[in-house]
Amino acid sequence: MNAFHRLSRREKVLVLVALPLVALFAGYRFVWVPLNEARLMARAEIREYQTLIEAAENLGNRPAEMEPVAVVTVPLATRITESAELAGVLVRRLEPEGAVVRVSLDDAPYETVVNWVAKMESDAAIALVAIELDRRTAPGIVAVRLTLENAE
Question: What's phi and psi for 73, nearest 5 deg?
Fold first, then answer.
């Protein structure tokens, strides 16, 4: 307090007036503004959750929408043969065994086989159960044994 007593009367008045103003400004800037921003953010978050809850409740009241399921009536072996012809793959052997069909290919280009299998799965409702690939001496040529079934 020694420093305060050494000030002139005018400086003392200035310090006594400025000190409360600085304290009020600091309280406003560093206490009130952050608390107010946090309160506004909390209210916005609550509104978002309420909107989400209302949307979920509205969805729960509606009957479930079912996608139409296409019924495949063409036999599995026929679909395999047709897709092989479209892909340019020569099927050496086709052996139906219950619900699955075993397919053998000799000397087929690897890329063509992979594209054919992907096309069968996406377009012909055929699922790949197992695959065996044997590399041939020519680059990019493989012998393939596939086990295929109806996709569900």
Answer: -105, -15
Q: At what angle do helices 110-123 and 76-87 cross, to 10 degrees?
A: 130
Burial of 105 from C-beta contacts in 10 A (0-12 / 13-18 / 19+)? buried
**Gap between the Cα atoms of 69 and 11, Å rounded:** 88
15-48 per-position pLDDT tens digit: 999 999 999 999 999 999 999 999 999 999 999 9
Structure tokens at 31: 């206490």
CA distances (Å), origin 65, targets 49, 60, 61, 137: 25, 12, 12, 53
Question: pLDDT tens across 114-148, in order?
Answer: 999 999 988 888 999 999 999 999 999 999 999 99
Instruction: Give the span between the Cα atoms of 96 and 77, in whole angstroms.
Output: 7
Return the amino acid letter for 20. P
Entry pTM: 0.54
CA separation for the pair 128, 150 (Å, rounded): 9
